[in-house]
Amino acid sequence: MSLAAAVLCSLGVGSALIAETGNISLEMLMIRPDMLGDYMNSPLAVVFNLSLLAGGSCLLLAMVAVFNTYHDPLSRYLAFVGGIVGLSIILMGVFPINLLDMHRKVSTLYLISSVVLHFVCVLDYFKPGSTMNKPMLSLTIVALISGSALMALLDWNLLDFPACSTVLPQFCLVSLAMWLLTQANILWCVCLSLNMMKTIKVQQQVAYKWLQNY
């Protein structure tokens, strides 16, 4: 399900982004991802918001699978926080940027829960029988850096970010950090899916051997 979440979010975000810019270029990275859900200005806002609903739902179900596959407390806490990330993605699809007040609240929830999730991932990596692997740890570090940058840039009174500089419109730190966090989370879901497939196969082999001996 985490792989499905990654695929659905990638398709939705990619199609909405290309429809917004008309071509593939580095300028795409200067558009804030949340603006793609604007029903008034984004051509494929419906596709983008539906992909958030579907992707968030799949991530939520994936965290249920993590909770039932890994039985140690830290992994289960990771699954719980990951579930909050999935729920916040769903809510961002329900409350796009047109509903500004609610969108600010749910996007802030997404940001905070993403940072907490990846902080737990770092702790999880160093325990025996970790849920994480090296590619996931690398993506976690990227997500922590970009997420921390966004938290530093966030206006906590408004729960929103400052506008991009008019002096250097081609360089928008907020947009770059948002895209880094988005892509790190999507690729993290892909790696989680592949890692869980290996873990489940090992668990099945152990169970099969136990049944044979029994």
Task: List the keywords.
214 residues; mainly alpha
Characterise the protein shown here.
There is one protein chain. The protein has helices spanning 2-21, 45-69, 73-94, 100-125, 134-153, 173-213. The protein is mainly alpha-helical and 214 residues long. It has one domain.
Q: What is the chain-wise order of helices and strands?
A: HHHHHH
**Overall pLDDT confidence:** 82
| Global shape | elongated
Proportion of strand residues: under 5%
Question: Helix count?
Answer: 6
Largest sheet: none
| Poorly predicted regions | none
Structural class: mainly alpha
Provide the domain count. 1
How is the topology of this model organized?
Elements (H helix, E strand, L loop, with lengths): L1 H20 L23 H25 L3 H22 L5 H26 L8 H20 L19 H41 L1
Helix pairs in contact: 1-2, 1-6, 2-3, 2-6, 3-4, 4-5, 5-6
